[in-house]
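can u do me a favor
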């Protein structure tokens, strides 16, 4: 398996993009064509309880067995995988270094990384890419990416237990950018916030021109809403999860239609975690504006299973003062409507934003290069 040493290179074959979520294991597979990617397979299964913690697969055989189930039931045909890492031990940093060659950069990166890694460089997998010369002409801007080896190797172990081939591991923000903003997208040169609300964490990323100069993870996600419903309505977690998916909605004083009492009760109990999440998003966007003065965030893409929470996109747009759209990465390429009804892709799509981006990573169309960013 290769991690980050091939982060900024391309292959040219079908792969299975696997998203190791704390709540669900999700996968997607595309095929190349002269006109771009074609969706072939998509599926997800529940992650075994307590088998993934802070992104680390703590029980590789158990997760490997769940992956076997996913591959079998989803009828996947590829064997090589691309997966991703995220969390507090994953570092993406743009730095300024003296002008040097790619070879010299590989040798110098670990010394540069020592300045900002929260752990020893001996525990890290590190890669770097030259972005271009700095304004002074004597230095260059470099993107440095690092993750703890345990995080990477635990995924590789689970993949091998599943009978698959562990190919490349990259960082989640790059996969989400690839899934949602290819190089021919009019938004490619704009600052776009991609917010992925996972089960236990929410990642807040700002991308421009294919790179991610800002990324932050906050420890609140869809599970906090489920727990609030379970506690507030005195029901089980499973019942609360079902109620969240079927009846939960974000209410507004602008709503004119009468609201069922159950919907109002659910909204009241999820308001605290909702408020906390919006506050953290506000902080992140404000920090970006302060750090990168003059840069304007144009819009927000909302991903993750919780993105389907009724009216969340409209509510977030009102709170942030920005247009918010719900991610639909599976519809970015071609697909057979008989196999993948548009309504199904729209429903499942937000939770597959990482898996889809990973599956697209090594694809190139016949006779040309697929227009996706690195």
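np, heres the sequence
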């Amino acid at each position: 398996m290769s991690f980050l040493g091939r982060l900024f290179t391309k292959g040219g074959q079908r792969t299975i993009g696997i998203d190791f979520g704390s709540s669900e294991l999700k996968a997607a597979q595309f095929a190349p064509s002269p006109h771009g990617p074609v969706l072939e397979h998509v599926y997800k299964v529940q992650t075994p309880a307590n088998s993934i913690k802070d992104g680390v697969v703590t029980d590789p055989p158990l997760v490997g067995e769940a992956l076997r189930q996913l591959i079998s039931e989803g009828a996947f045909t590829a064997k090589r995988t691309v997966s991703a890492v995220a969390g507090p031990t994953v570092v993406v940093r743009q730095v300024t270094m003296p002008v040097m060659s790619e070879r010299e950069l590989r040798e110098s990166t670990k010394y540069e990384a020592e300045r900002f890694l929260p752990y020893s460089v001996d525990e890290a997998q590190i890669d770097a890419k030259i972005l271009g010369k700095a304004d002074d002409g004597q230095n260059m801007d470099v993107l440095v990416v690092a993750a703890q080896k345990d995080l990477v190797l635990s995924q590789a172990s689970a993949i091998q237990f599943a009978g698959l081939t562990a190919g490349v591991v990259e960082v989640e923000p790059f996969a989400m950018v690839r899934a949602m903003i290819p190089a021919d997208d009019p938004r490619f040169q704009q600052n776009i916030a991609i917010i992925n609300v996972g089960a236990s964490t929410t990642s807040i990323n700002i991308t421009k021109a294919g790179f991610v100069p800002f990324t932050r993870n906050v420890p609140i996600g869809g599970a906090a809403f489920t727990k609030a419903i379970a506690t507030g309505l005195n029901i089980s977690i499973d019942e609360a999860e079902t109620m969240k998916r079927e009846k939960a909605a974000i209410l507004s004083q602008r709503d004119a239609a009468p609201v069922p009492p159950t919907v109002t009760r659910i909204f009241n109990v999820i308001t605290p975690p909702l408020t906390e999440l919006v506050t953290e998003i506000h902080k992140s966007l404000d920090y970006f504006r302060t750090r990168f003065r003059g840069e304007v965030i144009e819009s927000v893409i909302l991903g993750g299973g919780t993105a389907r929470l009724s009216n969340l996109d409209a509510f977030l747009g009102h709170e942030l003062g920005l247009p918010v759209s719900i991610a639909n990465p599976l519809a970015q390429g071609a697909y057979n409507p008989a196999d993948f009804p548009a309504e199904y892709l729209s429903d499942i799509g937000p939770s597959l934003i990482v898996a889809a981006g990973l599956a697209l990573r090594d694809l190139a169309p016949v006779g040309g290069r697929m227009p996706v960013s690195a």
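Residues 261-291 form the longest helix (31 residues). hope that helps!!
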